[in-house]
Amino acid sequence: MPIQTEVEFTLPKGFLDDQGTLHRNGVMRLATAADEILPLKEASVQKNPAYLTVILLSRVIVRLGDLNLITPATIERMFAADVGYLQDLYNELNDVSGQTLTVTCPNCETGFDLERPSAGES
What we know:
With about 120 residues, the protein is α+β, with helices and mostly antiparallel strands. The protein is built from five helices and five strands; from the N terminus they run E-E-H-H-H-E-H-H-E-E. It has one domain (about 5-115). The chain has helices at about 35, 45, 50-60, 70-75, 80-95; strands at about 5-15, 20-30, 60-65, 100-105, 110-115. It has a three-stranded antiparallel β-sheet. A two-stranded antiparallel sheet has the order 4-5. The longest helix has 14 residues, at about 80-95.
């Protein structure tokens, strides 16, 4: 069975561009290791770890309406509801949401489950 590397989406609100066009339909691709690692070197992410989400989304959204170039500035201008929707989609597409790791305390050797943080969370 072939792996699904892209998924189509429809934003709840939509992105309003400078010409007044509303863009709601888009395509997101699977993230690569570089998508998650390279933004960590960005000064904007080092100053504000929450900005990682903005850069990650700008890297993995390949199309939004008629827009084929999605930049961090595009994500910054989106409505909060749409950014939240895209974060959830990213986590679902990349299988990072709700995963748990079983870890053992090095002091008391008690085992417990720890939820894996979603991409872009600090």
